[in-house]
Specification:
776 residues, alpha/beta, Four Helix Bundle (Hemerythrin (Met), subunit A), 6-stranded mixed beta sheet, 25 helices
Length: 776
Amino acid sequence: MTPDQMRDASLLELFSLEADAQTQVLNAGLLALERNPTQADQLEACMRAAHSLKGAARIVGVDAGVSVAHVMEDCLVSAQEGRLLLRPEHIDALLQGTDYLMRIATPGNSLAPADIEAYVGLMERLLDPAAAPVPAPPTVSAVSTVSTVSAVSAAPEPSEPPPEAPVLDTLLREAQMPAPTVERGRGTRTVTEGGERVLRVTAERLNSLLDLSSKSLVETQRLKPWLTGLQRLKRMQNNGLRALESLNVHLKEHELSLEAQEVLSDARRMLAESQQLLAEQAAELDEFGWQASQRAQVLYDTALACRMRPFADVLAGQVRMVRDLGRSLGKQVRLEIEGEKTQVDRDVLEKLEAPLTHLLRNAVDHGIEMPEQRLLAGKPAEGLIRLRASHQAGLLVLQLSDDGNGVDLDRVRRSIIERQLSPAETAAQLSEEELLTFLFLPGFSLRDKVTELSGRGVGLDAVQHMVRQLRGAVVLEQTTGQGSRFHLEVPLTLSVVRSLVVEVGEEAYAFPLAHIERMCDLEPDDIVQVEGRQHFWHEGRHVGLVAASQLLQRPAAQNAAQTLKVVVIRERDAVYGVAVERFIGERTLVVLPLDDRLGKVQDISAGALLDDGSVVLIVDVEDMLRSVDKLLNTGRLERIARHSQHVAQVARKRVLVVDDSLTVRELQRKLLLNRGYDVAVAVDGMDGWNALRSENFDLLITDIDMPRMDGIELVTLLRRDNRLQSLPVMVVSYKDREEDRRRGLDAGADYYLAKASFHDDALLDAVVELIGGAHA
């Protein structure tokens, strides 16, 4: 749904959108809790999702949604507080409730009141420890379970803590293997196995080690200018010695006193000695610099190797999954893996799990034929899927192939025409490569109907999106009747990034090369106005032009040159030209994560150090593209002034709405916009805090219960900030008890409004009371 459509959407449509997103969170979290019922982060995520859905349902008047979400939230809160241990019957019931919520939010697919009452009664009995055992609700099929666990939208499975020593002993006795020796220390765990000690350290310590080693590598580069300076000083001294020798030759024609001759001789001797000493020191510094840089490089490579894990770590359970999924479909399928020991950065491995699982399921469902079909085609009844992993030119190269039927190109062509993606005449002329690219479009599917595995529109577009997030690429090849092959290339590590370093507001910023389409110089005549916005012509299309100084909130260049330096960035179909002040050059940067206390910094993903030790910030291109869209949708995108002045506009008072519920957020935004206020929104407390620090507002309206940072924390931070401490704050919350109201006011809020009882006039009247009308 586009921003324009969202502004015109009804609250029920927004509730449906929110339910779709929140039920995905619930499905992923509940499946994780089925494996580990006490996992705090998943309990928190599920509780917040149920809480948000309850509030959204109450706003739009869907009582059935309120009832279902309320009992689900009660169950999750009990588990959080340790009053209830989630058992399989609880998970089954909560998953059933998740399905009910999605049905309730889907127009024309509501539930009967008797179903709601039966579900509420079921949950109440499950929450009562003294109640008789409750029959579990109908369980999903094995295929559905595999599909859900492996869905691309599901969160990666959290890593389980290492088992305690007695468990290890039991497992190893059963396997008739010698037990390892386990030693414990603070934050570490040592396992001695086969004579080799393996030390497990926390990810935080590894990141810190990599940070220090990369800084050491940068520091050694600073020796080069010193060595260059010494070499220059040596040449200057050599020239001085030659000049002194020449002077001595000319003075021989004149009578010099004995004293003058001794002074001249001493000067020559001291200059020669200093030159010799300088040569020795320069040679020692050169040797030291070389040794230091080599050791720093080895240190960095070793620290980086500590982050590397074998590719097999991402394959846990995949062989069994392919076999079981094939059996559920009546197929015989086997998965062969090569290159299991290929080393890959652990962060890359985590992000590869979801797309690889989807491609494997895709190969079983779409690629491998039924046994009888394979036998008729002269193939063995058992289908074969091969997955190969290898290193190539600093990249991890994955090839996933199957010996199935390949892609039905005629069917792809028909689907393109049916979906009106291309006229029939054009589709008939598309090459095989062009036809295969359509499979990566969002929502494109060759299934005529939705099954438990296919036809849901979550296809190869999701795989391509996740691979691109890794700064990689995916290509599909096929041979009709013989099978398909996916070729993936991703970096071995996310700790190093090749970037273009530019200057914006007299500071250095880096754009990852993977997101750069091209660099160009624009003349004033190259910039055109289309629908009131600046564009330039690029590869047959108009590309929007934005100023990096506005996006990164840096002062614009005072003396702008006629030629404009532009970086063309792309993410999927979104393309924009970002105007910068200067191109510094291409650099390989060691990624240094930002301090967690900063939270998510808008448009910035990480930091790095240049060769001279100066700091450069690495741009988050996806976040920057979202910022551009936000500026376009709010009409606040500034034109890049080419020797012209900005026209002053009548100022409107600005309000920031912070709420994690899409429905509530949009309701408040529409009410305030209709009254004439300029409104910005934030999805949680951290997002709101970043917006408050970077932009100016006249009023803050915030919820209390939000992820990452709740409303109380947000208001507390605001009141401690010298610039923001006088900003009016209104808290709008479902909690309407007196102690909740007192808690919000004590944190520094100026007004407390209960969502359960507020109506349009109540909210707008409170805003007017706090800051007056919309115009200054």
